[in-house]
UniProtKB/TrEMBL annotation, chain B:
Keywords: Membrane, Transmembrane, Transmembrane helix. It comes from Marinovum algicola. The chain crosses the membrane at residues 58-75, 103-123, 135-157. This is Rod shape-determining protein MreD.
Length: 306, 178
């Protein structure tokens, strides 16, 4: 039997090398094909994830729950200190709640005065976070809602408070959210109250920097950052976070969304703002043929006068 | 002799695939959804290298390619690139394996550390050549460091728990003679 094996190895050497070579060619071919025709391969990627992920998810939920349980259990050790801290925080929160209530009433009054109707199209689908990107270099999440639920590329994903990212890649049952912190994420933003426009550029850190700011002097730490809706990618007015200054003096955004622990995300349905592409039909009365006939000589007359 | 039967061979090959899927599974768990300060070591790469050095017949190139390609798809990397590099690295390990068999663990460690660094560099150079966005250099180097650090654990665990140990030259010679 051993001789048999040695015999096999003699032939296996060149054959194995050939197979390895073919595999290498295929892999590099796939890579180059991806570089040339990215959307097609990305669709394929979404399909692969879509097929494999549900097989994982039944096991993922309990394991995640267990790890979180163990973490929570560890936190029992610092129960007393935590309790004290929570009490202190509760005190602060009470005053904030008071402020919030007053603001809410004021807001309601102002909305009533302005007769504002918030966008009725802005409904949402809530999905469970199935998995994270698994790579330290990419910041994305996998949600358990997909094409089946009407999710489309480019829609905004939020947690309860602020923007988390946007949909990029939709499978039949899953979809991927590229987070604001990913290096490929660039979100047009508006900084209030100064009204400055800027880009929030992900750089793989918890606090993405603000780039392409018109006038940095008008922006102070603590200012609110919301989406501007420029380029029509995201609906305008979604909360991103607050401006903060890092020790280097660079302006960054402290995100409102708690991106360290995301469990559920709501995906906003956004059907885009229809573009205005005609000239002012409303202002000018509709022209008849007689008008045109009368206008023509007048025009030439004016031209001569001029 | 039970070590050499075909069923054992296929069992170990399937074990390799199962281990690969397990590492993917744990990397995907949504525990830390925010950016991480410390990148996790690439356990799968360490596993591929350790097994290729010890028992190349347990990790045919097809299996390595399939496992890494799957991670390429899952971790949002350019598909195929990392897989091709790792297949090449495993091929290099396969060639060096016999020479290292009786050389001790330190020599193996140095070789593997250099290989892991080479894999990271090759990946980076390829990304640059194809004008693709590159991950932060610091993070990549840290990941290389951690992967090197995790390698002895992976290698020893595979030896003791799964019995993936290199056949010594004496054993091989014995096998050839009969």
């Amino acid at each position: 039997m051993a001789r048999d094996r040695a015999h096999q190895e003699d032939y296996a050497g060149p054959l194995r090398r050939l197979v390895t070579f073919v595999i290498l060619l295929c892999l590099i071919g796939l890579f180059i094909f991806w570089r040339i025709d990215s959307p097609r391969v990305e669709r394929f990627r979404a399909q692969v994830v879509d097929r494999v992920m549900p097989g994982f998810s039944w096991a993922m939920a309990p394991v995640t729950a267990t790890v979180n349980l163990i973490r929570d259990f560890q936190s029992y050790q610092s129960l007393y200190a935590q309790n004290q801290e929570l009490r202190r925080e509760l005190q602060q929160m009470k005053s904030w709640k008071e402020a919030a209530l007053q603001l809410e009433q004021e807001n309601a009054r102002l909305l009533d005065l302005n007769n504002v109707r918030l966008d009725p199209q802005l409904t949402y689908v809530t999905g469970v976070v199935l998995a994270d990107s698994g790579s330290p270099f990419r910041q994305s999440l996998l949600l358990n809602v997909g094409n089946r639920d009407g999710i489309q590329d480019g829609w905004a994903a939020m947690d309860g408070l602020g923007l988390v990212g946007r949909i990029s890649g939709v499978g039949e049952r899953t979809s991927r959210v590229i987070m604001l912190t990913d290096t490929s994420s660039k979100v047009p933003a508006l900084i209030q109250p100064s009204g400055q426009k800027a880009l929030v550029v992900g750089d793989n850190s918890m606090v993405p920097p603000i780039d392409f700011l018109e006038d940095a002097d008008q922006v102070r730490p603590g200012d609110r950052v919301i989406t501007s809706g420029d380029a029509g990618v995201l609906p305008p007015g979604l909360v991103i976070g607050q401006v903060a200054k890092d020790p280097g003096g660079r302006l960054r955004v402290r995100l409102s969304a708690d991106i360290e622990r995301l469990e559920f995300l709501r995906v906003l349905r956004d059907h885009g703002t229809p573009a205005v592409d005609t000239a002012g039909d409303l202002v000018v009365p509709p022209e008849t043929e007689e008008d045109l006939a009368e206008e023509a000589p007048q025009d030439t007359g004016e031209a001569v006068d001029g | 002799m039970a070590d050499n039967t075909a069923s054992r061979l296929w069992l170990m090959r399937l074990t390799f695939l199962a281990l690969a899927l397990t590492t993917v599974f744990f990397r995907l768990l949504p525990l830390e959804t925010g950016p991480v300060r410390w990148p996790a070591p690439d356990v799968l790469l360490a596993l591929c290298l350790a097994w290729s050095l010890r028992r190349p017949d347990y990790v045919p190139a097809v299996f390595v390619a399939a496992a890494i390609l799957l991670t390429d798809f899952f971790f949002q990397r350019p598909p195929g690139l990392m897989a091709a590099i790792v297949v090449l690295a495993c091929e290099a390990m396969r060639k060096r394996g016999p020479g290292l068999r009786d050389a001790g663990f330190l020599a193996e460690m140095i070789l593997v550390a250099l290989t892991i660094l080479a894999v990271a560099l090759a990946y980076r150079v390829a990304l640059t050549l194809f004008m693709l966005p590159r991950p932060l250099l610091g993070l990549s180097l840290l990941q290389v460091l951690f992967t090197v650090a995790i390698y002895p654990v992976v290698a020893l665990a595979s030896e003791w728990l799964l019995g993936v140990r290199a056949r010594s030259n004496a054993e091989l010679a014995a096998g050839r003679m009969t």
